[in-house]
Amino acid sequence: MVKKVSYLGPEGSWSEICSKLWFPDYDPIPCRSFEEALEMAESGKSQICVIPVENSTEGPVTQVLDMLVDSPLNIVGERIMNIRHSLMSNSREIKVIYSHPQAIAQCRKTIHNLYPGAVVTPVSSTSEMWREAIGNNGVAIIGSSWISNRYGIKILNGNISDYRANLTRFICMGNSPYKIDGISKASMSFSLPNDGPGSLVSALKPLSDRKINLSMVVSRPDKNNPGAYRFFIDCIDFSSMENLENAIGEMKNFGAKVSLKGIYERSNWAKPDY
Fold first, then answer.
1. CATH fit for domain 184-265, picks 3.40.630.30, 2.60.40.1240, 3.40.50.2300, 3.30.70.260
2. Which of 38, 166, 234, 253 is the most exposed, fewest CB within 10 Å of its CB?
3. Fold of the 86-157 domain
4. What is the pLDDT of residues 113-160, one digit of tens each?
5. Global pTM?
């Protein structure tokens, strides 16, 4: 049976490019949203899904973090990709710019400086808007240069990102068991028993006591408990599975509700995979 990978499409999206580089032997399933891509893997229609979870300039993709809370899938891997956003149009005068909200956020200053009068409009997927930019109607899109090559749209700016290094971390979600070989990372979410002074420090102390480093800490509103928050953390340098399990056990003894979302080999921001 040919394995399948789901991701936010359609053709030319950064999620597709990452998926094809990462899993070249898998059949691609482009989806209309992050939710659909994850649901494909949860239902078994795809074996894995690839979704972006963090950007070097804009931080975590909070929509994806919120989705991970209730997903039964594990994070089984990650890849870091160098993102070069191109501004494309067949028009000389740019009046409207379409792109995904994350891409817009990563190019906000440059867009304002180059096209101060343009109306910037977020869309669910840049690749779907190529038809709007192919005519001479003042419409431009921001996305991968693949879109230009595929649909014949001129590249007006080959790298419109605000910062030279614009990296995105993609994660792979699947049912595979945790991978603890090599240099590993553990991702987990937890909520606190109360919001008293020092409660977050107390919940994290078992990690600090065992010299477990944190590479990401994010708080998100608890959708089922207004005023309360859920925390997402990535742990590195935990030396052994036993060391990590002991820390999690002590966090639970404190009263934190901990959900381990995955253990996998980590990538290096200083040396992107793609």
1. 3.30.70.260
2. 253
3. D-Maltodextrin-Binding Protein; domain 2 (3.40.190)
4. 999 999 999 987 776 777 778 877 899 999 999 889 888 899 999 999
5. 0.89
